[in-house]
Each structure stands twice: as structure tokens, then as C-alpha cells.
Amino acid sequence: MENEDAPAHDLDEQVALLMSLLKEHIDSWPRLITALNTFEANASDSETIARIQDESRHLSDITRRTNSAAANIISSQKAISSARNASASIEQLKIEIRQNHAQLNPTATLLRLGWFSQKWEGTLAAQGSRLLEELGQLSDELQNWDQLLEALVYELDVPGLSEALRSQQRNRSLHQIIKAGFDPYPHKFDRSHAISQIVEQFAPKTGEELEASPAVVRAGGRIHAINKMGKAAFVRFTDGAEVLQIYIKSNEVEERTWSLFKLLDLGDFVGAEGRLFRTKTGELSIHAESLTLLSKALVPPPDKYYGLHDVELRYRQRYADLIANREVRRVFETRSQIIRLIRTFFDERRYMEVETPMLTPLPTGAAARPFVTHHNALDIDLYARIAPELYLKRLIVGGFEKVYEINRNFRNEGIDRSHNPEFTMLEWYEAYSEYEDLLRLTEELISSLVEQVCGASVIEYGDNNIDFTRPWKRMTMREAVIHYWPNAGGSPTLDDLSTNEGILRLAEQDQNLKSQIPHFRSLDYGHLLGEVFEQVAEAHLTDPTFITEFPIELSPLSKQSESDPAFVDRFELFIAGMEIANGFCEINDPKDQLARFEGQMKLRQGGDDEAMLIDEDYIRALSYGMPPTAGEGIGIDRLVMVLTNSRSIRDVILFPHMRPEKPEGSGQ
Fold it and tell me: Most Cβ neighbours (<10 Å): which of 215, 260, 314, 403?
């Protein structure tokens, strides 16, 4: 028994010694860095040089002893596996390494020493100082510790450090690059062409044509692949849109350039200069005369074959997603194209693009829960705007007859396939028009976008084909419920859908709706019909469909219909089962608008926190007089979803909102 416990006892002592040294290491290196910083501020200060020497010797001694203790533990694996009482101390050591890995990792200190030695070599040599020699000895010890720390992580199987280890070798390469006198992050690189321009301009040329009329280019990009062949290599690099090849040969570039090349990794940014030629396989390439490191990547890019497939990781790290997935880049290029085309469409029709406030004193313009913040200087609460509508109509009052805006809206609501709290809207308003004019303009706008972006009037979306051939289908809200009513026993009539009682009787006949009758009983007629429409019809509206004749209760800013005052002159456009657009004739009677606002306030007092507040300044603006006006909003994000065949709104927003990341290994 005594012999069995001895290794565990020895190991406990070794672990205790190492943990003590690790704490000293963590305390020591910041003092050295502080001394280096002080020297750079006072280069001729001999006291600071002495202080650097003291701290350097101390850290060198600590590191040497740490290395010895770490090596002893690594060589004691047999004792670790056989000693039953060793687990507690080893587990404590693993926790210590995991929690303090960033401070224990010597990479930053090595880089700082490299920069310092390179910058002040001449000054210190002139003073006859041995400081550089001592810093070199410290660097050697730190490099040993760098390797031993990695070995400890592997041997002890320290959880949660895989990302750090992936970057370890790159940090060593970075240290060697700096030590060799290269700047790994230069300020500028003058290009003659972007890679895309080279491919576009020279792809049609044959090898013979390039040889007859030599073209020397200078381009930069991210390394996509490296194929080494002894004293020569092919490097493929990209500007994100196109890929080009570099051919580099050891005897055709400077020796230090070849040494630099051997330290490059996938993901690094490089600049290459040389003449264009075609390889034996016909690939357009740069025959490198020089190679410049433009940025050292310390984290490897996602695997070039398997990409980045974890959906949540793609959204959180969109930068990595764009590196790995060319199709993702194309989605956002298409989004940019759509927005440019929308601007051109309205500019050509003499609309004026305007900008209205993003922070507003009232959360108005739509029925939604707002985000609230506080303005310290004015000591007032402000709201991230939920819609620009009331400001744009103020501009109609002021005399601008045709206005549009493309900007962000914010709504403090749930997140799902078609909703994000921050989203982009197009809104436009035109004086002397009514909603029939908007219907025609909407068909014209979106049809032209489909033709220009997709090159066809029928496009794929998920498992469906969507036909944008004009004219588009029109249905009233009640007609859509009748058409898509699920009960095989018979469809409801318009009379059935004209009262609360009739709708509730119908709900009794459908299993899905029947369970919601207690909730339905609390709703007014407009909200009841709206909810039944959403559940019965909305998902079936695949091809572009205008839904008209909205109940007045759902539309506090829309003009009443002249034919039936229970409804308003409003439409919504649905495509792929999603609401894409919402337009209506605007109320220009200030008394009518005030009465609608007051109705919203009653809903708010009854617990509906999405109902609108009274905007007294808007009522005042209407009182100055606003001509007959129609206005519409289109959700840019959802439209882009349809035109790029994207199934989630997060796929078309560069940086969608996400829950905070869980700490690795937290178990929370």
C-alpha cells in the first residue's frame, strides 16, 4: 500500500509546485511589459533599462523552473494513470490551466519582445547594453514554455482549449515572421488590380497572347490553398468573389521572401506582383516576382471542403460564414443589387429619398412593442422607431408630393423564420393617389425586380414555384378564408364571416380553431377575422396575392371604404405565405384620425401594449391640410428571402440577433 501511494504523493507535490510557479508567471510578465512600455516613452532612461533587466531575469528564472516542473508532470503519465489519489490535484491543475490559459500563453509576450528588440536594437547596441542578449535568452525559455503548455493541454486533456491550440502554431509562425524583420500587419498595399478584375480582364486571353503582350499585375487576397512542390509552389488566393493562382519558385525570389512563404498559412492575406501566364493545365496565374504578407490570420479558416455548416455558428460568426460559403456571399450581393434597383425605380419616377428619425419621442406608426432608451442630456425616454409612416406623411403635409425611405425599423417582438427585431423597410407616399395606384405600382416594382435579379417570371422557393406573371391574384380577406376553409363539409359564406357570432359558429366546426374559442371570444370583430385569416389562409398564399378589404379595427391609419364603413381601403401583398407589403389610403381628416387614436388608447388601457399612442403633433400636422394620399411599406428582408430562395430571415441579414453565447463548458 505504501509503494502504491508514493507516486501519488510525489505527483501532488509536483502539481503544487507547478501551480505555484504558474501564479508567479502570471504576476511577472505584466511587470516586464510595463517596463518595456516605460522604456519606449523614455528611451535614454538607464534606470528603466536596469528595471527591464531585473524583470527579464526574474521572468526567465520563473519560466525555466516552470518548464522543468511541467516536463516532470508530462513524464509522469504512468504515475497519473496508476495513482488513485492523484485525480484531485490533476483536476485542479486542469482548472487552473483552462481558466488562465490566455495569461499563461507566452505568445503575446514573445511578440512584444520581438517588436521591442527589432525597434530598439540600434539604440541599445550604441549604449553597450546586454539587454538584447538577456531578452533573447528569455525568448528561448518562453518558446520552450509555449511547447510545454501545449503538451500539458494535450496530456491532461484540458477541456475547452481546442480553439486556442488551433491558433498555437500560427502564433509561433507570427513570432518567427516578426523575428525575421517582416511587418505582419502593414499599413498599405498598392494594387494594380483586384483579383476579380484580373480574372475578368485576362480570362479570355490565351497563353500565347499573354506571352506576346506581357502583363505585370499587383494583387492582394486571402490564401485559399497552398500546394508545395519542393522548391516551387502554387498558391491560390481570393478576393472573395474570384480565385487566382500564384506560382512562386525559390530561385526566382529573394531568399527572405521564400523563408516568409514557408511561414504562410491558409487564411493569411498576401500581395503578389508578377507577370500573368497560363500553366500547362491552362490556369491563369501570376508568376511571382515578389510576395508580401498583408495580414497574418491567427485562426484557421473554416474547412474549404466541408465549409461552415453549424447554422447558429454561421449567424454568430458571419465573417467566417462569408469566408467558407460562396453562396452566402452571393445572397448578400443580390440583396445589395435589389436595394440599388429599388432606388433607381423610385428615382426614375421622381420620388425624393428622405431620412426620418430613428429615435422618436413616441412609439407610433404601427402596432408593435417598442425598444426604449433614455437621452441623458434631454432627460427624456426615446423609442427606436417601429415605423417611419407618420414622419413621411408630415412631409406630404409640408409639400413634398412623392417621398420614399429605405431604413431600419425596430420592434421588440419574437424571433422566428420571418421576424427579426431589427429589419429593413421600404416606405413610400404619394399625394393625389389612392390604393389602386399602389397596387399597380407594387406589381410593376416587384415584377421588374424578379426579371432583373432572377431573369425569369417564375422562380423556385423551397418546394414551390412562384409565378410573378401579371396581373396578380386579388381576394378580400373574407374571400380568402372562404376559399381556404379546411372543413370538407362545406365552405362558409360572406354572411357567416360578417359577425363575431358567425365566425365563432364556424370555429366550432374546425378542430384547430375550436380550441381557441375562449381566446376568440375576447376579440372584437376585426381582430377575430384577422386571426382566422392568418390561421386558415395565409400559409396557402404562395403566388403573389393581394388581400383587400381589411376590417377598420385592424387599420387605425387607413381611410374607411366608401362602400362599407366597417372596412378600409387597404391591402396586403402575400408571397410564399409571408406578408411582403402593406398599403392603404391615408386618413387626412384630423378629427377622424384623432378618433382612431383614441380607440387605440382604449385598447392600450385594456392591456394591449402594442396599441398606438395619440401623436398630438401628427394631428396638428394633419390640421394644416394633407391632400389625398396613399402610402405603402415593403419588407426588404422578406422580399430578399423570396428572390434568393432563402428559408429564414436570418439568412438575408448579415448580423441577425441571437441569444448570448453560452460560456464553453458552462453547462448552462
Answer: 403
